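Let us practice reading a record.
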Amino acid sequence: MAKYDFDMIVIGGGAAGLTAAGLAANFGAKTMMVEADRLGGDCTWTGCIPSKTLLKAGKVARQIKDAGKYGLIDGEPNIDFKKVMAHVDEIRKEVYEDADRPEIFEDMGIEVVHGKAAFEDDHTISIQGKDGSKRSVSSKKIIIATGAKAFVPPIPGIEEVDYLTNESLFEIEDLPRKLLIIGGGPIGTEMSQAFVNLGSEVTVIDMAQQIMANDDPELVDILRGVLEDQGVKYELNASVQKVEEVDGEIKVYVEQDGKTKIISGEALLMATGRKANIRELNLEAAGVNTEKGNVVVNESCRTNKSHIYAAGDVTGRYQFTHMSDHMAKIAATKALLKFVPMKIEKNMVSWVTFTDPELAHVGKTEQQLRDEGEKFEVYRFPYSKIDRALAEGETTGLVKIFAKKLSGKILGATAVGAHAGEFISEYAVAIKNGVSMRGIADTIHPYPSWGLGARRAADQWYIKNQSEWSVKLIKAVFGYRGAVPDFSDPDRVV
């Protein structure tokens, strides 16, 4: 008889868990996947899908208001917020039906179990079913993929206030007249734009001096300017002292420049980060190490127990669905095909904040490269020189590429503007496969595609490597009679 009930148990049915379980089954492993709530996890139900659907609704409303820029007539959108939220829910359910429902994974041979899992020892878990049933199962390999949930800091008075997080935001039916958002990261920034475009008065509060702290400051300034023009208000460098609710009005007390200020609103969204879901796992029974509330893993997603791996938000490493998927592939492959050389691609992590304009990044930031003493050039290209951007009235934006001067090796890239995430995807492929700036510049891109902007940005490598003396040499050798270009501007764009 087999020593264990399963070859692989995956705890969690979100982005990381679904990928890990599917891959394990594809390798021929007898697999169980345990999920405490609904398959699909945060991304489908409370994160990526509903937030992007809501952002799209807000964008359409904004386009109606700004129709004049396309030669049409400006209008005032008639917004039925209940219908908007019903649409958000319909899209969530459609994604669930198409990609996440249990039958899809059961058809792969995976046993899908709904219940709360907790370790009994390092090879055994107990599963507490919603119906009160309890079951113990063992497995040769285990992957922890329980994700994370909204973190709400212990602000005085917060427990007496009916606040929102991403886990409750998409269940509301009435549009808040005045929405306060504590947190100027990706969630707070995306939702500030969605709600201001749908008709809310929005104020973003953050203790930092700038929003989107992990992104390029120059590009963040461009995005913030757009959001302010649309009506988002900011209270930055503001330390929250307490919150209270009085007669249905929420008051946030902040300290700015040594003075106390009260900011009032109808609803409060806490966009203050996330914390790993480990509290009920009983990791001590398995001997799995944690640090700062996260499961500790190495670059192959393995914990201190050689047969237990972890992937996604539960590790605290990256808060992106695509990185959860990436880590899950590594965890499942390393656990089941032990000697395959796979590690987290930590030097080419990409992310996109899906505001309009989008803010995107891949690889190392400019500040990281400077801190490391790396020698590189910054290649800049404005959206105003992308013909498709001109045609569609989307000229606000900038692409910056960080690359080696002589070889054109790309070390990182960042962009703000329409379809910036697609530009970044092209640079991600280039970094992964060693394609240089020259390689992109020499690749034919269809005109007038948005992707041509990625190529034209890469063209700047040729421009920057050209010099006055080289042009004079060419003129002398071939007897050309034209003028020598003006090289006095180091940031000139062609």
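A brief commentary: The first helix runs from residue 15 to 26.
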